[in-house]
Amino acid sequence: MRKIIDELLAKCKAVPFSESTEGGNFYKVMTQQFKLPSGEIITREFLRKSPASVVVPITTDGNVVCIIQPISLSAEGSLIEVPAGYAENNENSAQTAMRELVEETGYTPVEVKYLGKHYQDPGSIKEPVNVFVALGCERRHEQKLDKDEFIVTIEISKDEVKQLMDEGEIKDANTFIALAKTRLANYI
Predict the structure, then answer these.
(1) By Cβ atoms counted within 10 A, which residue in 9, 71, 150, 164 is the most buried?
(2) Which of 53, 42, 45, 29 is nearest to 104 (CA)?
(3) Predicted local distance difference test score (pLDDT) of residue 53
(4) Alpha-carbon distance 77 to 70, whole Å?
(5) What is the pLDDT of residue 141?
(6) Residue 65 has what pLDDT?
(7) How many CB atoms lie within 10 A of CB 53?
(8) Which 3-state string (H, E, C) describes 143-176?
(9) H-run or E-run covering 2
(10) Residue of 93, 140, 167, 108 lying closest to 179 (CA atoms)
(11) 52 touches 15 (CB < 8 A)
(12) For residue 109, is it left (φ>0), alpha (ψ between -120 and 50) or beta?
C-alpha cells in the first residue's frame, strides 16, 4: 500500500512554475503559478509565515497545561488551546516551542520530545506546524506575555482532556492535532 501511495503522491504533485510574489504584514500573501500533472498551469494564493510550533505541556502530576485567551477571529471569542507560536530571530522549532511554553504559561519541562509535524491548511499555508510534548512541567516563572496578550492557564487532567476532545470542545485545529499526537504516543 505504501508503494501505491508514494506513486500517487508523485503523480499528483503540483510543480512551481513561477517565482512567488508577496504582500501583507503579519502573514505574507503570496501568489505563485503551478503546473499540474495534466500540464495545466494554475495560479494560487497562499500565506507565508514564520515556522510554527505547538507544545503539549504535561505536569509532574500528569495534568495537561492548557491556555485560554481571547481569539478575535473565532466565533466563540476564546478557545481552549495549548501553547503555540511562530519562530523569532532564526530560532529552531524546539526553541520556539520552549519559548512559547515559558512565555504563555511560566511552566518549564524536564524533558521535551518531538512528535512530528502537520499542515494546518495545506491549500493555503506552505509551512508545517511542529508538535512537541513537554514532560515533567512545573510552574517556575511568571508569564512573559506580549503587551497585547491576555492568557489564562489551567491544568486539566488527562481524562478531562480526552473528554473535551471527544465532545468537540477542543476547537483549535493545532491544539486538537497536538493532543491527538500526544494521545497516540501514550503520553495522555
Answers:
(1) 164
(2) 53
(3) 96
(4) 6
(5) 93
(6) 97
(7) 30
(8) CCCCCCCCCEEEEECHHHHHHHHHCCCCCCHHHH
(9) helix 2-11
(10) 167
(11) no
(12) beta
Q: What torsion, rounded to 10 degrees, do the Cα atoms 105, 153, 72, 53 define?
A: 40
Q: What pTM did the predictor assign?
A: 0.82
Say if residues 77 and 107 touch (Cβ distance below 8 Å): no
Provide the grid cell at 176: 486538537
Return all residues near 146 (Cβ < 8 A) that are at least 6 apart: 103
Whole-number Å distance between alpha carbons of 105 and 138: 10
Amino acid present at 3: K
Q: Look up residue 132 and give its three cell numbers.
A: 512537541
Amino acid found at 131? V
Could you list the pLDDT tens digit for every one of the 188 residues in the chain?
Answer: 677 776 666 666 666 655 656 665 556 777 888 888 888 888 888 777 888 999 999 999 999 999 988 776 667 778 889 999 999 888 999 999 999 999 999 999 999 999 999 998 877 887 889 999 999 999 999 999 888 788 889 999 999 999 999 999 899 999 999 999 999 999 98
The residue count of the chain comes to 188
